[in-house]
Amino acid sequence: MVVSNSRALKDEFIPKEVVHRDSELQVLADNLRPVIKGGEGIDSLLFGPPGTGKTCTARYLLRKLNQESPEVRFHYINCWENYTRFKILYEALRGIGKTLTVHRQSTPTDKLYTVLKENTSRPYVIVLDEFDQIDEEEALYDLYSLPNTTLVLIANHSTALHSLEDRIRSRLMGCERIEYEKYSSDQIFEILKKRAEVGIREKIDEKILRKIALSSEGDARVGISILRTSAMKAESKGVKISSELVNKCIPDAKKEKKKKDFEKLNRHQKVLHGIIKDKGEVKPAELYSEYNKKVEEPKSERSLRKYLKKMGHYNLIDVEGEGRWRVYKSKK
Ligand SMILES: Nc1ncnc2c1ncn2[C@@H]1O[C@H](COP(=O)(O)OP(=O)(O)OP(=O)(O)O)[C@@H](O)[C@H]1O
Ligand SMILES: [Mg+2]
């Protein structure tokens, strides 16, 4: 057996130890500290490229704070999956165990908000991961206006705030920004080393881990994906994890990550992606007009720009030029 703990090799795994993110964790912990004393914390925005540990540090800290002060309420919401106002408010209610009175089909969304408001007399921290995927931005306004509620927003870029509707933007612009920079290859190496210690039975040659780290290009998720793919392949073949095996797994792991990122796209993003792929290269006006022909209830251009930006961050398309010179290109 090569793998000792397959859960530890997954993306969603929250490690016991987070390395190289001390200052980011410190700022976030300071912002949330008032919550422990029954007060309201400072809203934060964590931003940075994919695979820089934003989700992992936020969840790690939530878990730690919850262990220290079980009476403080925390909840993590992934906005890729929960992008409507109803779903977000429902999740926020779920976090405080108040969904019993809510019927998924028939309860009006405003009612969810009323129930939430009645139940936030005690501090509540809500993490909105990938908040730039939210379709109905009113939900952000709702959560922002709740009493005793502190928000932790996560996105790839601080400009995610700029694309919000004026009324919401002007309120959220005040949150403290915490930037996550790309990891160096040495930092990824250490992350992988710790992960391998938990997830893989035998000690892996450091040279192999360094090779994986180098191929990750600063994205810890890519590194972990290569480690997982290699471990699984070694296990199925009944061999050790060797340098040759890793070489073979690198393209598979990268493909797997791309596929996962693609699957997360919403219906509208998939239509946009399809048009860009067919055309190879397309200007915004043509892209929007093609999109409008294909979709029954088309989204506004503002939403489409937001969607496209996100797809660019995930490297699913290339976005080049600004304003009228902008072009969207499909990936080779
Ligand atoms: N500093 C770290 N210490 C230990 N593990 C880490 C660290 N940073 C990232 N990881 C691990 O790397 C993987 C990717 O990290 P994470 O999901 O937090 O990235 P992200 O910044 O949220 O990326 P994205 O923008 O794509 O959502 C996760 O499995 C996470 O546990
Ligand atoms: Mg994340």
SSE layout and pairings?
Layout: H1 22-36, E1 44-47, H2 54-68, E2 73-78, H3 85-94, H4 109-118, E3 124-129, H5 138-145, E4 149-155, H6 166-172, E5 176-179, H7 185-199, H8 206-215, H9 220-237, H10 243-263, H11 267-279, E6 281-282, H12 284-294, H13 301-313, E7 317-320, E8 327-330
Parallel strand pairs: 1-4, 1-5, 2-3, 3-4
Antiparallel strand pairs: 6-8, 7-8
Bound molecules: adenosine-5'-triphosphate and magnesium ion.
Residues 54-55, 129 line the site of magnesium ion (MG).
Total helical segments:
13
**Intertermini distance:** 38 Å
Instruction: Report on the biggest sheet.
Output: 5 strands, parallel
Q: Identify low-pLDDT runs.
A: none
The secondary-structure element order is HEHEHHEHEHEHHHHHEHHEE
Structural class: alpha/beta
Rg measurement, Å: 21 Å
What molecules are bound to this protein? adenosine-5'-triphosphate, magnesium ion
The CATH superfamily of the largest domain is P-loop containing nucleotide triphosphate hydrolases
**Percentage of residues assigned to helices:** 40-55%
What multimeric state do the chains show?
A: single chain
